[in-house]
Amino acid sequence: MAMQTQEDHGAHATVEAGHEAGPAATHEGTEHAGGHESSGLPQFDFAWWPGQILWFLIIFGIVLIFMRLFAAPKVGGTIEGREDHIAGQIADARRMKDEADAKAQQAIAEMASARAASQKVASDARAKAGAEAAARLAEEEAKLAATSAQAEARIAKARDAAMTHVASIAADTADAIVSRLTGKAVSAAELAKARG
Known about the structure:
It is a single chain. The protein has helices at 2-15, 23-33, 49-128, 130-182, 188-195. It is mainly alpha-helical. The protein has a domain at 61-128. Helix 1 crosses helix 2 (23-33). The longest helix is centred in the middle third of the chain and has 80 residues, at 49-128.
């Protein structure tokens, strides 16, 4: 600052060659040349505010136009598309729910009519041939019991056959594991002893 004052003083002295350059003239020249610096930051100097406000309005207008023409339509389109997608999903869900409710009501009605029809058939059958139905029922139960006994015998036989295979598979697996780990073959007596 002191150097600038000396330079201003030298320049002022050259310009005013015919005038006497005293301390008052030097002080007046520096006040005139550096008047903006004496008040602090230019942002807080009221002399700069009209220009700053003008540039703020120009930049704000450009940003506003950019947002209005480019950014807002894209964001709005995305939001609108998402809302349409959600609305479509909700409409599909409501439609499916309505269809499911209709099918449930239809199934309930069909079950009720089937139950009523079966009850009517059962009461008609009981009314027409009570004794005949009891005899047939006993005959069918006997057939069912015989069939059930045969099935249980076949199941027990198959289970026993499977269990013998399981034991031999387990023995083979144990033999393979032991020979793989130890490198020695296991005898049948050792396997039988291990089975316990």
